[in-house]
Design brief:
Order of helices and strands of chain A: HHEEHHHHHHHHHHHHHHHHHHHHHHHHH
Structural class of chain A: mainly alpha
Shape of chain A: globular
Strand content of chain B: under 5%
Order of helices and strands of chain B: HHHEEHHHHHHHHHHHHHHHHHHHH
Oligomer: heterodimer
Strand order of the largest sheet of chain A: 1-2
Chain lengths: 679, 483
């Protein structure tokens, strides 16, 4: 198989699975996950083979385009582009997605909309693969948008709940605002260069004046900021946790939110050439710190992880802002593994304890030992404790910040100090959750089913060893693939400092937990308790965190960012998201689902029946010809006509949504036939 | 008098607006049972028709008005007279209605939707056409739901509304695309210019616009893939309004389509022509075949309507002036035949679904009703010497002359299928084929009793039947005169 075909299969298989499930999902019931997982496993194999091929390959491994249409003299091409960057991200996405899919078979068991879940989930995965392998910016944007749609559908999966409706709506609107940047960039570039091929565009843009490049960068970065939940567009991410946990574990930790970072990586030469890097670094480092601070006082386990995701994405951005492309990609990959591990473990805990509030979870580790161990591995990796994956990647990020100090001491120094502070805070909030939830005495819970445990264990294994992909000095490494020829510097003292920072965070968390336990046993934490443990560190940090929470910046930002857009769209008078959401989702999507189900029942059944009946009619007709001559033939024709009619009559289902769908489907089909005939 | 010419040229529409708005206002101030209003409505329709005749008699009023938005010409006059005649028949049919169906609002909305139909036919730009379609549709949605005590009517109205809105959206998108492709929304000389002047890209886009516009118009005309609403809505809706919606908007939309596409469309755009051909064939085959299986008469008539739309579309696929003439004659025949058949169905069962059983032995229970039904159905089937025969004959001849003999053949074969279900009703009415088990059921009581039909409704039915006969007897002459 050629690499091009392999690269095509990676997004095509989940897309085919999504299509298949959309039509046949209802009928397959809980077996529909088999199709999704099967397709995804094949995609994983294909991605791994691409990664192997990309090692030591000069230039991009795959760069193939097919013309799709010519509009106004501009050829619009779709294509595949796979280089080291895409291949390594592909493998991470495919591996995490496979694990999360398997996990979801256990987590979503018995859910009424099980096939629908896997349909959208597969569609999302296909789009994520599409974003990573797109060779044209337009194609990338298409996948990007559909990914946003899938995110909307999955956050709002429990659309009976008002908070889920609200969250899905908020996420969609907020990310769409940034997507406008991408759209504008595509329009500008398409108008100027008459091409959307990314490598060509990058080459062309390098010759442009800085101001123009800077503008394009700003537009692309706007899209990246909203997708990757960077300040100030992060507001949708914590609320997005209203979706099912597998969704949070795949979309809102490892893959979709990383797409923004990936976009910057993809266009990295442009960002470097335009001197745009500081504009990435500042919001990045601020988000890293801000997310970590907010995570400190959050009481919902999934929202804590959401703030943490925001913070870690900030790390990736700040690495990109200081020239650390390899560090950013490295952290993107390891973060994908350990954050989805954390989410899956959290989901397992939620599954066992039936609550998301960490104040109500006590001593879970006793009766759910595997979940506890997996969460611990994830927490250690996130904190940056050696030798887990997170340690190496976080160290690479810090090394990149350190590298910036040699050029701009103040800039780099600030970033480095804040980066180290964030490292301490990260370890602290993570272990505050770990000790609080898993350690100590507690009630008896049941360990989750094997379908959930197995992928967690597998991810934990990967998390332990994933640091090896970029060990300094190795010939086969991420750095060697992304930036061949550049020698990576290792800073042993920085490693030691970052490990100590992580250790300090863990220690503080342990002390704080012990004190709390000593004072209050297992009861809920009174809000002012932490003040007793004053000290230099805790009091100001908690104060800031609580201040930020009371400031309710989310709300302010939401009204600054989302509300004006709605107002501009003329939706202000009906600003209540529930109303809009119900209009869009419950009616729209519900109908789509109903229609798809009806096609399943009506068209598929109907077609089978119609063919069968027509066949019977014909058979009967020919029988008549044999036995009764001309009379029989007349009867046979009449019988055949009646049979045909009976088949066609089934189209009249009585369901309004079906009729609308049939209008489109048949109208377009007839049009295509006409086009084909008249060519 | 030049400054007055728009007022004169549009005097029928002005009458409709004043009467429609006046009736609604009058009812708001002095709520009543519509006794006065129905006379006002009839008078307004007569006055509007008279105005239309006067306009036709002063040819200097013919022309394009309001910066190329509306056109008054012979087609407009034709449409105005046909609309007023059918409108008056609908008013007559609900004359003795039972209160709720025939309030003042009913008449006001009917007048306003007639105005919308006039605008559809007169319009010369896509936007005005769209506005006209909405002006037609919105009163119809309300009228369909007017008999609130019938759950079926409300459900039908909602279905009609939802799908109608959907079709409008599709069409509006088509308008946008048409503007993008053609850089104009005016179709004073036909919307689609020679594709050579457009270039390949814009011509392709123009075809997409055509598809969407056709979908929007085809919805109102119940052409095959856009017809799905009609059987459900016709079966459940309020009877006089169903008769109205099944007949008059279709005429308006067909005339508008003639203007939008222009005589040269079929020759210049092979894709568009093929599309219309396929839709025509599918409509004829699907409509007639499925109609065979219907037990509910209104449903059957809905599918027959789909099939008839297929016959009408032949004129567009063939193109040219002769087929346009044939179409206009067919429209008149169809309007009276179809309206008559629906009105008979209404007379047989005003508030409930009418099945074939209800027609068993109708000849004995009300001979005039059965006779009217028979004439209308045979006209629809295309039996000589009734009007329908000449209508179909003209269309099929246009197809053969245009080099579409195979299309004419398909049309002929489907016509033979259609005779099957028309004959089914007729044979039940006249008793030769009454199945014993059919008379044994709930039908017994009604068979025994004579069906009493309100006099105005009967008059409307007789008028329809007479029209079918007259159009048949004088068909050849009229067809020649239509040129």
């Amino acid at each position: 198989m050629t690499p091009t075909l392999t690269a095509f299969l990676v997004p095509a298989l989940p897309a085919a699975a999504a299509l298949f499930l959309a039509v046949f999902g209802r009928r397959m019931g809980e077996r529909s996950s088999h199709v999704a997982i099967g397709a995804l496993a094949l995609s994983l194999i294909a991605s791994v083979s691409l990664l192997v091929g990309a090692f030591g390959h000069e230039g991009p491994l795959v760069h193939a385009t097919v013309p799709w249409a010519v509009v106004g003299g501009v050829p619009i091409e779709f294509g595949l582009f796979v280089d080291g960057l895409s291949a390594s991200v592909l493998v991470m996405v495919a591996a995490v997605a496979t694990m999360v899919f398997v996990y979801a078979t256990g987590y979503m068991k018995g859910d009424a909309r099980y096939p629908w879940f896997f349909t959208v989930f597969s569609l999302f995965t296909a789009c994520m693969f599409g974003v990573v392998t797109s060779s044209s910016l337009l194609e990338l944007m298409l996948f990007w948008e559909v990914m946003g749609l899938c995110s909307f559908l999955l956050i709002g999966y429990y659309f009976e709940r008002p908070d889920a409706r609200r969250a899905a709506f908020k996420a969609f609107i907020t990310t769409r605002i940034g997507d406008m940047g991408l759209l504008l960039a595509v329009a500008l570039l398409l108008g100027r260069y008459k091409t959307v091929d990314i490598p060509t565009l990058l080459a062309e843009l390098a010759k442009e004046p800085k101001a123009f490049m800077w503008m394009i960068c700003a537009l692309l970065f706007a899209a990246a900021v909203s997708k990757s939940a960077q300040f100030p567009m992060y507001i949708w991410l914590p609320d997005a946790m209203a979706g099912p946990t597998p969704v949070s574990g795949l979309l809102h930790s490892a893959t979709m939110v990383a797409a923004g970072v990936f976009l910057v990586c993809r266009a990295y030469p442009l960002f470097v050439g335009a001197d745009f890097l500081p504009m990435i670094a500042w919001p990045g480092i601020f988000t890293a710190l801000y997310g970590a601070v907010l995570a400190l006082t959050e009481t919902d386990i999934k929202r804590t992880l959401a703030y943490s995701t925001m913070s870690q994405l900030g790390y990736m951005m700040v690495a990109l802002g200081t020239g650390g492309l390899v560090a950013a990609v490295f952290h993107l990959i390891t973060h994908g593994f350990f954050k989805s591990l954390l989410f899956l473990s959290a989901g397992s805990v939620i599954h066992g304890t039936k609550t998301q509030d960490i104040r109500e979870m006590r001593g879970v580790g006793k009766t759910m030992p595997i979940t506890g161990a997996c969460f611990l591995i994830g927490a250690l990796a996130l904190s940056g404790i050696p030798p887990l994956a997170g340690f190496f990647s976080k160290d690479a990020v810090l090394a990149s910040l350190l590298g910036a100090t040699t050029v701009q001491p103040v800039f780099g120094g600030t970033l480095l100090v804040v980066g180290l502070m964030t490292a301490v805070l990260s370890a602290f909030y993570m272990f505050r959750v770990y000790f609080g939830v898993f350690r100590g005495p507690g009630r008896k819970y049941h360990e989750s089913p094997r379908a959930m445990i197995a992928p967690m264990v597998a991810l934990a294994g990967v998390t332990v060893v994933a640091g090896a992909i970029n060990l300094p000095g190795l010939r086969v490494s991420l750095a060697g693939m992304l930036e061949p020829g550049v020698v990576e510097h290792a800073f042993p003292w920085l490693m030691a400092v970052s490990a100590c920072a992580a250790g300090a965070g863990v220690y503080i968390a342990w002390e704080s937990t012990r004190l709390r336990r000593a004072l209050h046993g297992t009861g809920p934490i009174p809000p002012n308790l932490q003040r007793l443990y004053g000290g230099v560190f805790l009091r100001p940090v908690f104060a800031v965190s609580r201040f930020l929470r009371e400031l309710n910046l989310d709300y302010i930002l939401e009204n600054l960012v989302v509300a004006p857009v709605l107002w501009l769209c003329g939706l202000a008078s009906r600003l209540d998201p529930d109303v809009l959401y119900t209009a869009v989702f419950v009616n729209g999507v519900g109908r789509v689902a109903a229609s798809l189900a009806a096609i399943d029942v009506t068209v598929v059944d109907g077609a089978v029946m119609a063919v069968g009946r027509a066949g019977l009619g014909v058979a009967r007709g020919s029988g008549f010809v044999d036995t009764r001559g001309i009379d029989g033939a007349v009867d046979g024709v009449a019988g055949g006509t009646m049979a045909l009619g009976r088949g066609l009559k089934r189209l009249q289902t009585g369901v309004t949504a079906n009729y609308a769908l049939f209008m489109i489907v048949f109208g377009v089909a007839i049009f295509y036939v006409a086009w084909w005939l008249a060519r | 008098m030049t400054h007055l010419s728009p007022v004169l040229a549009f005097s029928p529409e002005i009458v409709l607006v004043l009467a429609g708005a006046g009736v609604l206002c009058f009812d708001a101030i002095w709520p009543g049972r519509g006794r006065v209003e129905r006379w006002v409505t009839l008078a307004a329709m007569a006055l509007a028709a008279a105005c239309a005749v006067l306009v036709a008699m002063s040819p200097q009023l013919y022309g394009v008005y309001f910066a190329g938005s509306l056109r008054v010409d012979a087609t407009t006059t034709f449409a105005r007279l046909l609309f007023m005649a059918t409108g008056a028949l609908v008013v007559l049919s609900s004359w003795g209605g039972d209160g709720e169906g025939a309030t003042a609002e009913y008449y006001g909305l009917l007048l306003l939707s007639l105005l919308g139909e006039s605008v559809i036919v007169m319009s010369q730009t896509l936007i005005v056409l769209f506005v006209g379609i909405e002006m037609l549709a919105l009163p119809c949605y309300a009228l369909m739901a007017m008999r609130k005590h019938l759950a079926g009517a409300v459900r039908a109205a909602l279905k009609y509304f939802l799908l109608g809105t959907f079709a409008s959206i599709v069409m509006l998108y088509g308008v946008a695309l048409a503007y993008g492709a053609l850089h104009t929304i005016s179709y004073v000389n036909g919307l689609f210019p020679d594709p050579v002047t457009l270039g390949a890209v814009r011509a392709g886009l123009a075809m997409a616009a055509f598809l969407l516009l056709f979908a929007g118009l085809g919805f109102k005309a119940t052409a095959f893939p856009f017809h799905f609403w009609s059987p459900d809505v016709y079966a459940g809706g309020s009877a006089p309004i169903v008769a109205y919606v099944a007949t008059v908007p279709k005429v308006a939309v067909m005339l508008a389509l003639l203007r939008v596409l222009g005589p040269g469309f079929a020759a210049a755009y092979p894709v568009g022509r093929t599309f219309i051909l396929i839709v025509a064939v599918l409509s004829m085959v699907y409509g007639n075949v499925v109609a065979l299986l219907q037990d509910d008469v209104r449903r059957m008539l809905a599918y027959s309507g789909v099939a008839n739309t297929g016959y009408m579309l032949i004129a567009f696929a063939v193109g040219g002036a002769a087929s346009a003439r044939a179409l206009m004659f067919f429209l008149v025949v169809y309007a009276f035949g179809n309206l008559g058949a629906f009105l008979v169905a209404m007379a047989v069962g005003p508030d409930r679904p009418v099945s074939l059983k209800d027609f068993a032995g109708l000849a004995g229970r009300n001979g005039l009703l059965a006779g009217g039904m028979a004439v209308c159905l045979f006209s629809l089937a295309g039996t000589p010497p009734l009007g329908g025969f000449f209508g179909k004959f003209a269309l099929f001849k246009a197809a053969v002359d245009g080099g579409y003999a195979w299309l004419a053949l398909i049309a002929l074969v489907t016509t033979v299928i259609a005779v099957g279900y028309y004959l089914g009703v007729a044979s039940r009415m006249y008793g030769s084929l009454v199945q014993p088990e059919e008379t044994g059921s709930e039908g017994v009581a009604s068979i025994a009793g004579r069906i009493v039909v309100p006099r105005p409704l009967m008059a409307a039915i007789v008028t329809c039947a007479l029209a079918a006969v007259v159009l048949g007897v004088a068909g050849v002459t009229l067809l020649a005169a239509a040129g």
